[in-house]
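Human:
Take a look at this sequence-structure pair and walk me through the tokens.
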Amino acid sequence: MAQKQSYLYEIQGLRAVAALMVSVYHIWIQKVSGGVDVFFVVAAFFIVGSLLKGGPPRFGALFDYYGKTLRRVVPSASLVIMTTIILSLFFMPDSMWRNQIKHALASTVFMENWALALTATDYLQKGAPPSPFQQLWALAVQVQFYFLFPLLLWAASLIDRRHGPDRRVACVTMLVVVTVVSLGYSIYITARNQPWAYFDTFARAWEFAIGGLLAFVVTRVTMSRVAAKVLGWVSLIVLLTFALFLDVSKLFPGVVALVPVLAACGIIIAARNRCDMKLLNNRFVVWFGDLSFSFYLWHWPLLAVYRYVSGSFDVGLVPGMMIILGAGLLAFLTTWSFENPVRRSVWLSRRNLYSYGACAMLLLLPIAALSAWHHDYQERRAVANSSLDEFLQGQAPDAGQIYPPTLIASMDLPLSSSDGCHQTPENAAIVQCSYGDRDADKTVVLAGGSHAQQWLAALKRVAEQEGFRLVTLTKGGCMLSLDADADYMVYPSCHAWNRKVVERIKEIQPDFVFTNATRGQGSDEKVPSGYLSSWQALAVGGVKVLALRDNPWFGFDVPECADLHADSPERCAKPRDELLSKRSPTKAYHLDNVYFADISDMFCDETLCRPLQDHVLLYRDDHHITNTFSALAAPRIRQTLDAAEAAFRSRAAQGSVVGYRSGDAAIPSAVIMKERDT
């Protein structure tokens, strides 16, 4: 496994180019570059090369390797995480605090990739304020493999004792198996759930395995210097440019990830064959390669802070260059004054226990900062909740304050989200709950997914005021629809649940069912056929339906936008024609048992849809309304219920098809404020 010194220079240069490529793509091109995959290949190449340099790894040598790796990773990571936490306290929109505290913790324990996978993060989603900890997912994956791969190599070397003292056959076999199994899984899970796959450690294992295999074969691949130059330059050009033509963030880490992985392998093989690529082995690039790890860690929080401060996702040439220079300066200071003294300490290298202890103490830095951040968050959250309660009880709004405050907007959920009355997406069983006067003769059923559930606060207030029984049959991610193949029904349990719900509603025989009528945006807004099927099934059972036109979907996190543009909330408004069709799609339908209601005027005037009105924040994310807005909309919902009852009585009196009403008369959105004084 011996390697020439020039070869080591080329690898350092490859690291530098990969780090710069990542930052350039992030800052200006706003795409995933594939540079991180280069880091994975190089990391595995060194893991295998280092551990097998003197033959099969001994178990005791693993602890030496772990200590050395911790001294390499922990100093820079702990400093960057701690600083990012401090920057977040001052610059991050407080609407992001709740989630980002969790990401800070996940980053500190090197599990950020799984935290992002569990939240189905769309990497580099344009228009959304980025998490300043998001780049640490790649470090988390590397650290996990820094731990796992040495164990696998050690275990493989124990299994095969028939190939002499070298025992490398089993190691190669193990790496081939990991490559095949992981790549197959990566292709499968990328097709099924790409946002999850992007951060899945096991979907990335094959990239490390290929890097490990390269350590075994690189000395056996020989070619002329001319051929090596061609291979090296072609591989580098492909690496630098392929992501310009592919939306890598939507395709990785499936088959497409082979491009940067094989390109990195090509460059390493070419370098081993003396291609002498000046772009990679010149003194400055090699020097910067030593800083590449810290540079990668620093560029992202600086980019995030710039976007918080500027309120813009796009970064100009000068600000982008300042971010790169700032990251470079911080990387230099971090590497030479913080990382190297720990990494190169002779005292620590001779005492593994001390290495582990020193790294544990360094990790106390971000933990202490995180503790302070969480404490501040809890205090501000208590103040925000108290302020919201006072507002809902009729106290005049504070100047410049919005309700719910953005700090707690994402948690401003319907009551059924906390009292066990809203079924989870995966479960097909019915969860039925009652609110209001549970012994009343009049019954209204609220049925559907979260866009039906979000009106619970309004309906509950009306039920308590008018004395009727409100029954909820709601489930996350499942609309009241009998179309099993609909693309909006993403959970397999939805169809079975819907069939049960329709039968349960027939048993209840309510005065009517309150549910959603439309889906889609702008010219694509429509009444789905599955909705119609469910209403027709209810008509067979003699059940009437109040179908409410869905609220506009903004496509960006509204509380975060309100934070970023506190002085100019109009920047969070969007043209009505982009969010709603000019003519309500319900006007094409005339059903005996369905009353269509349109209250879109509460969200939009003739030209704009505004998510912030009269101190009230209408949305808790990009498309769900806040519980506060729902409660304040009770007067309008009461009028809608009354209009539906009147329409159904009129139809019954005529004894024939009355047809349909497009909705009740428009009522100014300001009426929602009157509910606070009731």
Summary: Residues 1-7, 656-678 have pLDDT under 50 and may be disordered.
